[in-house]
Write a structure and sequence with these properties.
Strand order of the largest sheet: 1-2-3-4-5-6-7-10
Radius of gyration: 18 Å
Number of strands: 10
Structural class: alpha/beta
Largest sheet: 8 strands, parallel, barrel
Length: 289
């Protein structure tokens, strides 16, 4: 991996404050291992995967809370089979003391399994605030979405941010992960030009095997292997190696302008595991501090 260009240390330090992480319902052991290296009070998003049962998600939510961190449960709109299922899940995370903040996404199924076509319909349902949700995270797609037009993505982002505000809740955006800073910052500037002032957490791939990173990049349409390698500093001749987001974070810090891009924070997708990511962040902070 190529060395990362230098960046203003104070900007990089600011971005590294209050970072958030992601885990699945199956990663409780990883959480246990990462507990000592994660900053106390860190937000940890708990995904809503189709191949996991609700009880797995709830166990993960409780484990995050019990470990001293802030769980952010995901809600996948198109995977919900009924309004009752949504109420049941909200009631369960409220009982677990973890209903203050959620992240709502449309989800993977091409057709909804129940009454919710997209995440906006979940926000509009009125159930979130009824069960005590105060903060709603929504998705952002700096490099577009393989199945959704750019016009539809912008319309949805404007509608969701406006609806969250109208319903008296706080909003935030977490972007899809990427390997190229340029489209991320161009998109963030366009968000601000459209009058959307929600804080943005930039999705960052955690350290992982190069093959895995390239596979995820292709799956989510965020670049070709050659393009990812060039921007991210990967070696296509050493696919057995691993890589972290050093260059990405330095590029982000060097080009970030708060006047144009607004409030930016970081959200780590833990492809290589929660402990590996938390250890990497700790070491990166030490090196850059």
């Amino acid at each position: 991996m190529s060395s990362a260009p230098s960046a203003p240390s104070h900007v990089l330090a600011g971005l590294l404050e209050d970072v958030s992480f992601e885990m699945t319902g199956k990663d409780i052991d990883g959480l246990t291992g990462a507990r000592d290296s994660l900053p106390r009070g860190s937000r940890i998003n708990v995904t809503f995967l189709a191949n996991e049962q609700q009880q797995q998600r709830l166990c993960a939510v409780r484990a995050v809370r019990d470990a001293g961190f802030v769980p952010v449960p995901h809600i996948s709109a198109r995977q919900l089979e009924s309004r009752a299922e949504l109420e049941e899940y909200l009631a369960a995370i409220r009982e677990a003391g973890s209903c203050d903040e959620v992240f709502v996404v449309g989800g993977d199924p091409a057709s909804p399994r129940g009454p919710y076509e997209d995440s906006l319909e979940v926000v509009r349902s009125g159930l979130l605030e009824q069960y005590g949700v105060r903060c709603v995270g929504i998705g952002g797609y700096p490099e577009g979405h393989p199945l959704i037009s750019d016009a539809a993505l912008w319309s949805a982002l404007e509608d969701k941010s406006g609806t969250i505000r109208q319903r008296g809740m706080i909003g935030g955006i977490i972007t899809q992960f990427g390997f190229d800073v340029d489209p991320v910052l161009s998109w963030a500037e366009a968000v601000r030009q459209r009058g959307i002032d929600l804080p943005i957490r930039v999705g960052v791939p955690g350290p992982a095997g190069i093959r895995r990173l390239l596979r995820y990049g292709a799956r989510f349409g965020v670049g070709t292997s050659a393009g990812i390698a060039k921007k991210y500093g990967l070696s296509l001749t050493n696919l057995m190696g691993t890589a972290g987001p050093d260059r990405f974070l330095h590029d982000l810090a060097r080009n970030y302008d708060a006047q144009r891009h607004g409030e930016l924070k970081l959200h780590f997708y833990t492809f290589g595991g929660l402990k590996a990511t938390s250890d990497w962040v700790t070491e990166f902070r030490r090196k850059e501090g």
